[in-house]
Design brief:
single chain, alpha+beta, six-stranded antiparallel sheet, 7 helices, globular
Amino acid sequence: MDLAEAMLGSWVNRVDELADEFKAAQPFPMVVLDGFVTDEVAEGLVAEFPSVEGMARTNDYIFGDKRQSSDLGQAGPTTKRYHDLLLSDEFAAVLSRLAGGRPLFVDAEFHGGGFHQGGDGSFLDTHVDFNIHPHHQDWLRVLNILLYLNKDWQPEYDGSLLVRTDPKNEPRSVAPLFNRGVIMLTSDNTYHGYRRMTLPPGITRKSIAAYAYERIEVGSTRARTTSWAPESAGFVKRNLAKHWTELVASKDKVLRRKG
């Protein structure tokens, strides 16, 4: 038995069937997988999940309020096994089959990924992810792999992943239930996020995120930073979101000159 078969749920035995589901999904290619990992692995990941207080804030500026830690390999034995699974050739083969044969691999740095967590008031505005890895100009981001680890999640907590191809469209909603995985395409129009939550004390929204890439020729795809499209925003935030790409490009140009 390989690592993928030992740790993933029964869905791993029907990847070719799921590839058709992935391709046909609305509003863009994705698949929602309950029982993403075995019960033993899911319970171990929850037990080893870091406290929200010990995690740094993400670089989402005014467009989000959540915490992140990319250090999966040091959290505990189950998380280390899951870390190794995500980086394995077996899992890469599963992702490639799911995505129609594209040769994919998971970023070993977990740049922007790893543990994600948000407490009361946490939110993440609607956005499209960056496409070229900031440390590897020949890596194109293709898939987001999300595993939710929220036991006894109540509908009134909200926190659902909202996905759409246009910020003006009504979104598809995916509740962040315990041991539910989402594998979704990331491209120019794969908008997603979650609305501000109201959570009781001691309850947080937990997930583990990984990102799969394929190698491309440098310069063959125009690099895009994360692009924001908040559902509701005041004048300042709305205009920041509108001009965010240009602002980031200007900042990067200044930093390169200084370097």
